[in-house]
Design brief:
437 residues; alpha+beta; 4-stranded antiparallel beta sheet; single chain; 16 strands
């Protein structure tokens, strides 16, 4: 068995509520412990608890408190100093007041694990949102926000959540005022047999309508492209001209999130097929204020684009399969990708993202070698007179003269499929002109 102790944050009102429930639960544990000392059975204590006040109102928490008292009694049948010997001695020496002494005696809210209740009846793991959900009652749910988790904890808790969702494992919780303690059988945590290769890297380029995806293999500094695909999500970007709380708008939003998560699973399955060891993704965050590019652009990027649903699902499955999840700076990735790769724009950018992930920790490898003006002559004849010494300067020239460098999907041989079923409304384009670089 393993116990992980983590701090959490919540609102002050919720913390006050938790504090009061901890006090009631502690009263029940101490009462039950003393009844065990009087040779009472568990059944007897449950019956006696019905006449008590200042104990939990929920029967499950009463039962768990009695179980907790039983563990304490079996472990130490002599007197137990609730709150610890140090707290007791501090009070005897008048080095702590009555309130501090009582606070030190609080034990926490205990909830025993249950497989059939998806791991625990009163607590739910939601590691994608980095939180625990305390389900006190049907109408009272409290979000316990966790800090940024260490990679090992993150891996274990994600696997535990997967096991609990399949009703294969459970976890017990002791909720204290400032931290939450999770106990589980770590021998049962799912451990993948998947072994990725460090020279096989995947990359994605994300935008609201399209997701470019590619897988490359690197040998002796040369790249072989193994897969080039593009997911078309434009169906879900349609403006329905409905309010956000309209049934059709809600359906479109929920359907888009569902399909994005299905895309993430499809991407991970292909990564496992090609033994991907590194997964490159652009570190891209939009500000919440107005972009200055118009109402339609703001609607698309800030309301319709469910980027976090895609990123969190990809990150989760990369962790489950121990694929290195590498976020890279995406600056000029589309420009470089299109100039160096014969592929549609989103896929070309994904190839550059993958290259940056492959060489992220090698000094001087962030940008590839700067392309010279003679290599651009087939694209733009006027490039012969261009003078530039960096990718930024080349980008500024193209922006100034208004030349386009992005290639459309129509320029390439491809085959289109529906993702998993005809009802998905996501088109998947497979490109068949993979080239060695």
């Amino acid at each position: 068995m393993k116990t992980i102790s983590l701090p959490y944050t919540c609102s002050e009102d919720d913390r006050d509520f938790i504090r009061d429930e901890i006090r009631k639960s502690s009263n029940m544990v101490r009462y039950a412990f003393n009844r065990y000392k009087d040779s009472k059975s568990e059944k007897d204590i449950r019956l006696l608890s019905k006449s008590l006040s200042n104990i939990p109102s929920d029967s499950w928490f009463i039962q768990c408190a009695i179980k907790k008292a039983n563990y304490l009694f079996l472990a130490n049948k002599e007197n137990v100093i609730f709150g610890g010997k140090f707290n007791f001695l501090q009070r005897l020496k008048h080095k702590s007041n009555k309130d501090e002494f009582k606070s030190g005696r609080l034990l926490g809210i205990y909830s025993q694990g249950e497989k059939l209740a998806n791991g625990n009846r009163k607590f739910k793991l939601d590691i994608e949102s980095n939180q625990f959900i305390f389900k006190f009652s049907k109408t009272k749910h409290i979000n316990l926000q966790l800090p940024k988790l260490h990679k090992n904890y993150l891996y274990e808790l994600i696997n535990l959540e997967e096991q609990c969702n399949q009703k294969l494992s459970n976890f017990s919780v002791e909720l204290k005022l400032n931290k939450i303690c999770i106990t589980f059988d770590d021998s049962k945590i799912y451990c993948t047999n998947y072994n990725g290769k460090s020279n096989v890297v995947a990359g994605i380029d994300m935008n609201p309508n399209y997701i470019g995806f590619s897988i490359s293999k690197w040998d002796n500094g040369k790249r072989k492209i193994l897969l080039e695909e593009q997911y078309d999500l434009s169906y879900f970007s349609r403006n329905l001209h409905k309010a956000s709380d309209d049934a059709k708008s809600k359906y479109q939003n929920n359907k888009r999130i569902f399909e994005i998560k299905e895309i993430a699973k499809d991407i991970i399955n292909k990564c496992k097929f090609f033994h991907v060891g590194k997964f490159g993704i652009e570190d891209l965050y939009f500000k919440s204020d107005n972009s200055g590019k118009g109402k339609s652009f703001n609607r698309l990027t800030k309301n319709k684009w469910k980027r976090e649903a895609l990123v969190s699902t990809l990150k989760k499955h990369c962790l489950l399969n121990k694929i290195d999840f590498i976020e890279v700076n995406s600056v000029y990735s589309s420009l470089i990708g299109n100039l160096y790769n014969e592929a549609p724009d989103p896929i070309a950018a994904s190839l550059e993202i993958a290259r940056r992930a492959m060489f992220k920790y090698i000094k001087g490898q962030f940008y590839p070698e700067l392309i010279d003006s003679t290599s651009l002559f087939n694209l733009w004849k006027e490039s012969a007179s261009w003078v530039y010494t960096s990718w930024k300067e080349l980008f500024d020239i193209l922006k100034t003269v208004g030349l386009k460098y992005r290639r459309s999907l129509d320029s390439f041989d491809s085959e289109v499929f529906r993702l998993k079923s005809s009802k998905s409304m996501v088109n998947l384009y497979k490109i068949y002109n993979c080239l060695d670089n």
